[in-house]
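FORM 7B: Structural annotation worksheet

SECTION A. Query
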Amino acid sequence: MTSSITSGEPNETTQAPVDESGADLSAQLEAARAEAAQLREDSLRERADLENQRRRMAREVEMARKFANERLLGELLPVIDSLEAGLSVQADTAQHLREGMELTLRQLLKVASDNGLVAVDPVGQPFDPEKHQAMSMVEAAGHAPGDVVQVYQKGWLLNERLLRPALVVVARHD
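SECTION B. Predicted structure
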């Protein structure tokens, strides 16, 4: 036993496992490197896909923002046409001009209501500070205290959200 150790002869039982172990480790190392490279490629590909998706979404949001009013403005074109036609008439009566303006106003109000715009015209209703802005108070016979007596300027709601309050005169409390 001592002769094989001191003679310098390789010990087959200890050398073979070292060679197999080294080959196994090399194979495992190569497999781990290949897997790491594949994971790196997958990660870069996923990152690029996410970046492309982010850019695509940003473009879509920008296009939506840019053309958000397209439908509304398309619906306003007949109103513009009516106004231009009315202005092009040379010799006409004031009555015809008024009728044309009334028709154009009806067109405009229809487009507005189709897009969620509703007028706030509160004459005779109780004052509502959420929708009305009091400009003054007056003694008003025939009106309950706190009721709107007169409207200086209509208010407007857009899809049930206040766009502009109605400017009103309110009946004074006794």
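SECTION C. Observations
The CA atoms of residues 52 and 58 lie 10 Å apart. Residues 12-66 form the longest helix (55 residues).

SECTION D. Sign-off
Analyst initials: ____
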